[in-house]
Amino acid sequence: MILVYGIREKLNPIKAKLSDVIHGCMKSVLGMPEDKRAHRFIPMDKEDFYYPGGRSDAYTVIEINMMAGKQAETQKALIKSLFTVIERELAIQPVDIEITIKEQAPHQWGFRGMTGDEVNDLKYKVNV
Prior knowledge:
By secondary structure, the chain is of the alpha/beta class. It contains 3 helices and 6 strands, in the order E-H-H-E-E-H-E-E-E. The protein has a single domain (2-115), classed as Macrophage Migration Inhibitory Factor (2-Layer Sandwich), CATH 3.30.429.
């Protein structure tokens, strides 16, 4: 599950393309399948979205929630890929992008009526 926050007027016009960019990075770095896209966009009013100095109204926060098991180098590669491709495809400077990866143990995930540690038919690898 990926949550993306930004100022409504900046985020809404780009969210479809940003979703494509994020998913493309998830596929290329993590090996996620095409149909494994769970993105939630949270456009906010400017007066409700406080961000650090030195950033523009394009400031965008991307929270990536995933099952634990990814190697540190894999996670760093994902973050760097996102910075690069978002800048290239959407002209958002890396200073205006904040990315966090939040890992939870497989038993803390619930989907398709079971927990993540019970599932045995994923079409992608968790430990990469």
